[in-house]
Amino acid sequence: MPDAVDIRGLTVERGGRTVIDGLDLTIPTGVVTGLVGPSGCGKTTLIRAVAGVQVVRSGVVTVLGEPAGSATTRRRVGYVTQAGSIYPDLTTAQNLRYFAAVHRLAPDQVDEVLRAVDLTEVRDREVRHLSGGQRTRVSLAAALVAEPDLYLLDEPTVGLDPVLRRDLWQMFAELAGRGATLLVSTHVMDEADHCDRVLLMRQGRVIADDTPTGLREATGTDDIEAAFLALVGGAR
User: Fold this and answer.
1) How confident is the model at residue 235 (pLDDT cuts 50, 70, 90)?
2) Phi/psi at 153 (nearest 5 deg)?
3) Helix axes 132-144, 109-116, angle to 10 degrees
4) Backbone angles phi, psi at 96, to 5 degrees
5) Under CATH, which number does the domain 1-76+148-207 receive?
6) Which pTM does this prediction carry?
7) Strand residue runs (E) in 29-160
8) CA nearest 204: which of 11, 41, 6?
C-alpha cells in the first residue's frame, strides 16, 4: 500500500529560528506510528505540517496522495490538538452530534464513541465544566466520530490516568487493525512500546526510525528512554 504520509525536504521556521530543517520522512498506512521526544523537539510543528495548518519555508508534504491541507485531505484526517477543538458551551453529546453532522454521518455513532472513550456519564454536561482529561477525551471523540483514514493525535494521553491511557492505546491499535493510520505524539517515552513504529525526535530531527524492539536491540538497552539517551550520546 502507498504510504499515508510522504514528506520531502520539509523546513519550518518559527520565531526566527529553524525548527525543522530539510526533513525527509514517510509514514506507512495502517500502523500506529509514535512520534516520541522531549517537549520542544518539534513534534507539534511536524504534526501541524502534516495537518496542513503550519506555514512551511520549503518542502513538500503529501497526505493520502494529496497536498497536506487540501479540501479532500481535510475530510479524511482527524486532527486532535493539545489545546482541543471543541465547543465549551455545548454538552459532550452535542459536540459529537455537531461533528457527526459536519461529516454527514448518522448520529447513532455518537453513543458508541462515548462508550469507547468512557464519557457516557458526562454526555449531558457542558464541556466547560469537565476536567482537563475529560476535555481531552471529548476532542479525541470528535475525531473518532468522523472515522477518518488518518489520525493526527498530539499528546492525546496527557493528564489521563494510567487505566484510561492503557485503554486508549488499545483503541489506537484496534483502529490501525481496521486500516486506519495513526501518528501519535508523546513525550512519555514508555508509551512508545504501544506503537508499531517509533520516530525518536530531537531538536527538529528524527534521530531514529524503527520498531520498539528494533530500537532496544540496536542500542543494547532495556527501554525506549535508555535507547534515546544512547542515541543522543548524553548530549545536552
Assistant:
1) very low
2) -120, 110
3) 140
4) -70, -40
5) 3.40.50.300
6) 0.89
7) 32-36, 58-63, 66-67, 77-80, 150-154
8) 41
**Which cell goes with 60?**
513538500
Torsion angles phi and psi, residue 91, rounded to 5: -75, 170
Cell of 171: 483503541
Average pLDDT over residues 117-137: 89
Provide the residue ranges of all domains of the chain, joining segments of one domain with +: 1-76+148-207, 87-147
Sign of CA dihedral 225, 231, 235, 236: negative
Within 10 angstroms of residue 133's Cβ, the number of other Cβ atoms is 14
**Nearest alpha carbon to residue 202 among 192, 187, 217:** 187
The residue type at 30: G
Residue 236 pLDDT greater than 50, yes or no: no
pLDDT digits (tens, 9 = 90+) for 112-125: 889 888 899 999 99
Position 200: which residue type? L
Cα–chain center distance at 160: 15
Q: Which of 34, 44, 5, 8 is nearest to 204 (CA)?
A: 44
What's at 132, amino acid-wise? Answer: G
Q: Whole-angstrom Cα distance, residue 143 to residue 100?
A: 9
Residue 93 half-sphere exposure, CB side, CA atoms within 13 Å? 13
